């Protein structure tokens, strides 16, 4: 996978001590972020450190202290095992850092974030508040109003012949689109900017051609101004019907009028006016539909600290929002990007699942048993983190994403009948939710025909 071992712990200890001494304010904690905290670093990865300081700066000679949030960045090139390592240091006010955790991440395409982090040092008075296995930031609100307004900016720039303006506005539109589509999709969490980009492209409930249109609008794929305009229009006009059942959630952020327009057809007419396309195919509802009578969203919005999905950058599966009912066929119960050759060898339960026996790769210790469907197996094989299907929550989850007790996959084997998987992992911490290393810690008495063994 191209991952490299993190620097020796002494390297981080030395830098924690150095930064404590060099800080302009009293330090309350030093945290390791980024690829090293996620155990995904390569030989070229930066070391990202957050230095959390008190919120009151020292008095200035010319006046009283300034209590505004404080953030400063410094970069270093440090010797590490005969190589130079780029150390990026962000000095942050601890209270504003904590407040920031309650805000959506700007880089996450509106999706909620669950990113591993490692505490290197903490003042004991602050340890309980900043010693977190992961940093959780909430999803952004569905920004439908901004999505529509941005399509208007694309149209305006195109009418003026402002080709650069079209490209800039189309990129903004693509970054907004996942925050709206999130309403119609299963819960998804991301650990990095790269994972957020992949998740934004791989939303299973999306307009036809969604992935290609997103790549075009974001500038990842080349295209003419006309192609960009067409892609932007398809993204917005294709998203609106998918989120129509979620008018109550739209109203909470954008107001009741836009939510009513989403339901009574005015929004379709406005989009047709912007794009020059036909009006809505369906008949408009005569008058506003009371929000209270609308069917509630069948897909709950993601909540911090619950379950996690780490998507992989493959082609998306588009289509309607399927109801979460067990499949009656031996095939996959949910859309999946699993290699068809592998999928053909699976023998699934009636609800599309295969048992996964998990063991520690070097000792053979059996840790736990869980369930995978085709997509969970695909994500396990391609992301390097053990991913399962929760039968109780009806969601995908990455083991240890909230606790920090991740399972780094070393190998996966399929048994001779195709109805069970053997997943060999490097287990971080406890595998069992009780805090035990393994789920199999309760021994039962065994007797033979001759009496107790």
From TrEMBL:
The EC number(s) attached to this protein equal 3.5.4.19
An example of a Gene Ontology cellular component annotation for this protein is: cytoplasm
* EC class of the enzyme, as a word: hydrolase
**Reaction(s) catalysed by this chain's protein:** 1-(5-phospho-beta-D-ribosyl)-ATP + H2O = 1-(5-phospho-beta-D-ribosyl)-5'-AMP + diphosphate + H(+); 1-(5-phospho-beta-D-ribosyl)-5'-AMP + H2O = 1-(5-phospho-beta-D-ribosyl)-5-[(5-phospho-beta-D-ribosylamino)methylideneamino]imidazole-4-carboxamide
Cofactor dependency: Zn(2+); Mg(2+)
According to the entry, every stretch annotated as the Nucleotidyltransferase substrate binding domain falls at: 145-240
* UniProt keywords, alphabetically: Amino-acid biosynthesis, Cytoplasm, Histidine biosynthesis, Hydrolase, Magnesium, Metal-binding, Zinc
Report residues binding Zn(2+). 416, 432, 439
InterPro entries found in the cross-reference section: Ant(4')-IIb_substrate-bd, NT_sf, PRA-CH, PRib_AMP_CycHydrolase_dom, PRib_AMP_CycHydrolase_sf
Chief subcellular location? cytoplasm
Pathways involved:
Amino-acid biosynthesis; L-histidine biosynthesis; L-histidine from 5-phospho-alpha-D-ribose 1-diphosphate: step 3/9; Amino-acid biosynthesis; L-histidine biosynthesis; L-histidine from 5-phospho-alpha-D-ribose 1-diphosphate: step 2/9
Entry's localization field: Cytoplasm
Cofactor binding summary note: Binds 1 zinc ion per subunit. Binds 1 Mg(2+) ion per subunit.
Could you list the residue ranges forming a coiled coil in this record? none
Q: Where is the Phosphoribosyl-AMP cyclohydrolase domain?
A: 368-441
Region of interest called Disordered, as start-end residue ranges on this chain: 289-337
Which positions in this protein are listed as binding Mg(2+)? 415, 417, 419
Q: Which GO terms describe its biological process?
A: L-histidine biosynthetic process
Is the keyword rRNA-binding assigned to this protein? Answer: no
Function per UniProt: Catalyzes the hydrolysis of the adenine ring of phosphoribosyl-AMP.
Q: What is this protein called?
A: Phosphoribosyl-AMP cyclohydrolase
* UniProt organism field: Micromonospora carbonacea
Gene this chain is encoded by: hisI
């Amino acid at each position: 996978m191209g991952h490299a071992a993190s620097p020796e712990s002494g390297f981080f200890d030395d830098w924690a001590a150095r930064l404590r001494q060099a800080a302009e304010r009293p330090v309350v904690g030093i945290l390791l972020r980024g690829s090293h905290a996620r155990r995904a670093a390569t030989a070229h990865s930066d070391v990202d450190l957050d230095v959390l300081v008190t919120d009151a700066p020292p008095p200035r000679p010319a006046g009283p202290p300034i209590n505004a949030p404080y953030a400063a960045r410094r970069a270093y090139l440090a010797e590490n095992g005969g190589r130079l390592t780029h150390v990026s240091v962000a000095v942050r006010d601890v209270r504003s850092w904590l407040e920031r955790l309650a805000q959506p991440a700007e880089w996450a395409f509106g999706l909620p974030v669950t990113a591993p982090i490692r505490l290197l040092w903490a003042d004991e008075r602050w340890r309980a508040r900043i010693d977190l296995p992961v940093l959780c930031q909430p999803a952004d609100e569905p920004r439908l109003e901004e999505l529509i307004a941005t399509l208007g900016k694309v149209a305006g720039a195109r009418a003026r012949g402002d080709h650069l303006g079209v490209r800039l506005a189309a990129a903004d539109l693509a970054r907004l689109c996942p925050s709206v589509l999130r309403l119609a999709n299963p819960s998804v969490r991301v650990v990095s900017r790269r994972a957020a980009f992949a998740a934004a492209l791989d939303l299973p409930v999306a307009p036809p051609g969604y992935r290609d249109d997103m790549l075009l609008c974001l500038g990842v794929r080349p295209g003419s101004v006309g192609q960009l305009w067409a892609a932007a229009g398809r993204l917005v006009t294709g998203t609106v019907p998918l989120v129509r059942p979620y008018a109550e959630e739209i109203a909470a952020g954008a107001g009741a009028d836009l939510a009513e327009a989403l339901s009574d057809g005015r929004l379709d007419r406005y989009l047709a006016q912007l794009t020059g396309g036909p009006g809505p195919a369906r008949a408009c509802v005569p008058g506003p539909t009371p929000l209270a009578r609308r069917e509630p969203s069948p897909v709950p919005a993601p909540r911090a600290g619950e379950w996690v999905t780490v998507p992989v950058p493959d082609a998306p599966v588009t289509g309607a929002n399927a109801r979460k009912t067990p499949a009656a066929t031996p095939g996959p119960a949910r859309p999946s990007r699993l290699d068809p050759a592998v999928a053909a060898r699976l023998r699934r339960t009636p609800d599309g699942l295969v048992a996964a026996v998990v063991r520690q790769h070097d000792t053979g210790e059996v840790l736990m048993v869980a369930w995978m469907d085709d997509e969970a197996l695909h994500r396990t094989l391609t992301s390097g983190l053990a991913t399962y299907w929760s039968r109780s929550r009806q969601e995908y989850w990455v083991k240890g994403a909230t606790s920090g007790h991740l399972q780094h996959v070393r190998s996966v084997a399929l048994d001779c009948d195709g109805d069970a998987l053997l997943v060999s992992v490097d287990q971080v911490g406890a595998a069992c939710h009780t805090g035990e290393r393994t789920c199999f810690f309760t021994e039962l008495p065994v007797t033979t025909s001759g009496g107790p063994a």
